[in-house]
Design goal:
- By secondary structure, the chain is an alpha/beta fold.
- It is built from 4 helices and 4 strands; from the N terminus they run ββααβαβα.
- β3, α3 and β4 form a beta-alpha-beta unit.
């Protein structure tokens, strides 16, 4: 699967710009969470970033399944649209390659969930937009990691 076919995921250089209309809905309340990969030296620190940035509920279980469940719920945030700004995404979990892949897959699954969910009345539920920023030279590396995760997720 190619990244250009995933409209809710953007990989940009940290000093790059992304048009606001690609991030925000025309109407409704938007919640913006900011994460920093440089602060995610281990999985506990990564979970702390999500806990603080998304104001995760107290029942959060501090593991990948719990993070996945929370990212696919988000009902404790009274917003119609959620934007996750992930600075230095390529630097998250630097000595834990498998953990970084779990992190990326968790984000990708949450984005997929929100992009296809509809209420019974046919009205689209609040959306999740993920912006992953890194140094300009690391953009191809980060895109490659995300593409690989998407391919693994698409394989039976």
């Amino acid at each position: 699967m190619e990244l250009h076919s995933v409209p809710w995921l953007h990989v940009i250089p940290e000093q790059g710009a992304l048009p606001v209309d690609r991030l925000l809905p025309v109407t409704g309340k938007t919640y913006v969470a900011r994460l920093d990969g440089r602060e995610m030296r281990d999985t506990d620190a990564a979970f702390r970033q999500f806990y603080d940035g998304l104001r995760l509920p107290d029942y959060f279980g501090w593991n990948w399944d719990a993070l996945s469940d929370c990212l696919r719920d988000l009902k404790w945030l009274s917003a119609d649209h959620h934007v996750l700004i992930f600075k230095a995404a390529d630097e998250a979990l630097p000595s834990n390659t498998s953990g970084r892949r779990l992190l990326f897959k968790t984000l990708l699954r949450a984005g997929q969930h929100w992009s296809f969910t509809q209420r019974p009345e046919g009205i689209e539920l609040g959306r999740l937009t993920i912006v992953m920023a890194c140094d300009a030279g690391a953009v191809p590396f980060l895109q490659g990691q995300l593409r690989s995760c998407l391919d693994e997720m698409a394989s039976p």
